[in-house]
Amino acid sequence: MEQAIPKAAALIEALGYIQKFRGKRVVVKMGGTLMDDPKAEGKILTDVLFMATVGIHPIVVHGGGKEISRALAESGFETRFVQGRRYTDKNTLTVAEHILCNVINARLVAALNRMGGKAMGLHSLSSGVLSGEQVFLQEEGRRIDVGLVGKVTHVNAELLRVLCNAGTVPVIAPIAYALGGGKLNVNADEVAGEVAAAVAADKLVVVSDTHGIRRDLNDPNSQISEVTGAQIKQLIDEGVISGGMLPKVAACLRALEGDVGRAHIIDGRIDHALLLEIYTDKGIGTLITKDKP
């Protein structure tokens, strides 16, 4: 009996949040090394299924950079990065599309369905929801070509809303159809931000192998629990936010610009991190909110 009381208290704490978010859309971006850990990945998917079961409408966007790098190495293709972006030629895109769509996306969908959920994969080898255009980087006034890399220009939000209303969890791979034909590799964080904005999600939750935002990367006690968009820009200018955290916060800022209520960056290696962030009073990651007027 004593062991059951804390569980009941946790359920009561979650009740208010379940009622608040019932019928709302929540975009969950999965990435990082947690996708190399079947247990961590499975726990996040269990959290996604819990959300769907209690009437919330999760939309999953996933990455897969590390699995793509391994597949390219096994195929004998060189991996080259330009300003942090993977240079994507036709061979690289073919490998990336196979890993993202046929391996990772299929694995996530199968896992959700096996647990009793109803999920559908949306990607460039089936019913895609992303359109985009090729991007070029800039360096000292010169345009830098990074190959078949794109940015999202359109999300089929209507299809996503229809699937959510039917109780289906959309699972999106970050390959976009190019406006002029062909396909483009897109950063998964960027896709998540654009999807959240397009469907006017209540929340965007970026789940990775990062700890949220810290003022000092080496000091766990320096984690920032809540920050505004304006403060994010200041932290970038100060160099506190850099490297792999930049695309994550950029996705959060894009979502907030698109009328998404709140954005979160959390560490998916923590057991049931997604539920702890959404359904408890304290949360576990960094909450990013809109600037106050």
Describe this structure in words.
With 293 residues, the chain is α/β, with parallel strands linked by helices. It has one domain: 3-Layer(aba) Sandwich (Carbamate kinase). 40% of the residues lie in helices and 27% in strands. The strands form four sheets. Strands 5-8-2-1-11-15-16-14 form an eight-stranded mixed beta sheet, with helices on both faces. The protein has a four-stranded mixed beta sheet with strand order 7-6-9-10, covered by helices on one side. A two-stranded antiparallel ribbon has the order 3-4.
Summing up helix and strand content along with how strands pair, one would put the structural category as: alpha/beta
Helical amount: 40-55%
The largest sheet has its strands arranged as 5-8-2-1-11-15-16-14
Round the mean pLDDT to the nearest integer and report it.
88
Strand content: 25-35%
Radius of gyration: 19 Å
